[in-house]
Amino acid sequence: MSDVARVAGVSVMTVSRALKPQTPVSESTRARIEAAAEELGYVLNSTAAGLSSRHSGFVAMTVPSLNNSNFSDTARGLTEGLRGSGFELLLGYTNYDMAEEERLIAAFLRRSPEAIVVTGGAHSARCRSLLKASGVPVIETWDLPADPIDKVVGFSNAEAGRLMAHHLHSQGHRKFGFIGGDGMRDTRGADRRRGFLAALHELGVTEDRVLSEGDPPLSMGEGAAAMTKLLDRWPDTKAVMCVSDLSAFGAMSAAQRCGLSVPADIAIGGFGAYDIAKYALPDITTLDMSAEDIGRKSAEMIVDALSKGGPASLPDRIEIPYKLIVRGSTAA
Amino acid sequence: MSDVARVAGVSVMTVSRALKPQTPVSESTRARIEAAAEELGYVLNSTAAGLSSRHSGFVAMTVPSLNNSNFSDTARGLTEGLRGSGFELLLGYTNYDMAEEERLIAAFLRRSPEAIVVTGGAHSARCRSLLKASGVPVIETWDLPADPIDKVVGFSNAEAGRLMAHHLHSQGHRKFGFIGGDGMRDTRGADRRRGFLAALHELGVTEDRVLSEGDPPLSMGEGAAAMTKLLDRWPDTKAVMCVSDLSAFGAMSAAQRCGLSVPADIAIGGFGAYDIAKYALPDITTLDMSAEDIGRKSAEMIVDALSKGGPASLPDRIEIPYKLIVRGSTAA
DNA sequence: TTGAAAGCGCTACCAC
DNA sequence: GTGGTAGCGCTTTCAA
């Protein structure tokens, strides 16, 4: 920068100002400086700028999995929502592993992000304390934690499961299955299952047919394998909720390969409003949580919380509306 | 850090060393320092560390689209390959837009990344010169550019298109279509189309039936719309290559909704070995470029180029092998 | 509108 | 194995 200053015949301070928009530098000086910077191939060093100004320009985000259109839609919504405010996204994936999430968050915190967006409301104790001590806005998404760290943009996964249970029950089915992942790594998936089963119990259905198959994220392969096992074990099952549309598609595909007709022989519901649910044959009944909106609302919250002009005007908790999309896989 | 030093009764230099693995600090001192850091809730400032050491610890990567399992697989391969070497990934998406790519690369360069991975071999002139002037390893992926900026991990998209043409022709088809995106934004998709058509011409097929629909990335919706139009315009089409498996699935779904049987009435080939191609009914013939390997090899190249011990031992250009996976959508 | 000085928090370098 | 000093490249603050 001092080289640029020398060539342009000004001080480094003036160069620093000229390189930022909306700073008081005369037009002629700015033009001279820009010419000098171009000539020298000068590139501003954001690391030094961040150290000096104590503004890293980073927003950190962790998602369970990159290869999941729900989360990449949320990341896209966040990026779009942040566009123009000068933030860059530090994106990491945890692979549905709390220890990895903790490692990732710790690494991000060393970069002094100005806000942090995480997926879900379940974290290791140390992760929670790191986030609380960070001193910057923290947003938990895709969930409605009972004891949030700071801010929340999400919905109740249990309620979503209940909604699907009521829909399938209303179609006249009485023998239900649920296909999801092993264990509790995907806590949001487990919440959906819990809500689904609770609603069925309330409706008088007492028999559970839960099939857990493989580590999250459940994709088509695990969904197909789970359906094959489920039909083997309980051949009279009439309606199945899958933890995601990807597993629902795999499950439907497996049922069809077994010669079953969907929904005549078996109804299948998914989750997440993935593209695949719309273009499958038949198309798949699903729950749409507007994944991109979750990111967009998070961005709004961040900009709001970080804006200097007065106190934050947005609530700390935004509930995302969601809707059931009834399609051919459950309604003939 | 000076607070930690005071509490532990050592100098800041010793704290700095103790916080990094593999530095000569006595075990007792290190334990004392770690206790002090924990007590104070101290978090290392990587920004300052990067400024001082001139090692940002970043590897930058741009992909056309986040929500595409090919690219997220490559990003995952890169992350996994970099694990343990202490690098963090700065990931951005260009939305298949060269101007956006240039903006993104410029922003990344201000963060002094230690290596840069980009998708494809087509960039704006300014983007090329920025990358060349960066002074760090640059890897172009998913392509085999004639005039690479620096290093390359990829394959020939045109050759991939040729391979699919030969396969479909060998199945006895003589009336071919190609479904891809509008314009030249997706240069790799355009290369596949070029190779596909060139091979057909060589095989004596003179009639082209190219249907371009919508902006990249082409997803199921555009594939379905394109197939509907294609069948409307050229109802006797017998074999179609789609620029990706997602569009192939959409196209197949549209053909089936029109009452056509796949592959008896129309054969459909895709690209990318997505999950959907494996679980669709029928399953879809595709080209597998081992997307994750592209990321993994890129990571190897970076570690190799940045390792201090002697000169780089890997070639500057790694060609990724790919294979045709013949499935039910083209072979009855 | 511009400039000079101080210092952000850390590590390279050299000394012991 | 440990400590002191200088300085990374920028922006803050204050003064002109």
Automatic annotation (TrEMBL), chains A, B:
One of its GO terms (molecular function) is transcription cis-regulatory region binding. Pfam families: LacI, Peripla_BP_3. This is LacI family DNA-binding transcriptional regulator. The keyword Thylakoid does not apply. Gene3D superfamilies: 3.40.50.2300, lambda repressor-like DNA-binding domains. It comes from the Bacteria. The keyword Nucleotide-binding does not apply. Residues 1-53 form the HTH lacI-type domain. PANTHER family: LACI-RELATED TRANSCRIPTIONAL REPRESSOR, TRANSCRIPTIONAL REGULATOR. InterPro entries: HTH_LacI (IPR000843), LacI/GalR-like_sensor (IPR046335), Lambda_DNA-bd_dom_sf (IPR010982), Peripla_BP_I (IPR028082). Signal peptide: none annotated. PROSITE patterns: HTH_LACI_1, HTH_LACI_2. Keywords: DNA-binding, Transcription, Transcription regulation. SUPFAM superfamilies: lambda repressor-like DNA-binding domains, Periplasmic binding protein-like I. It comes from Pelagibius litoralis.
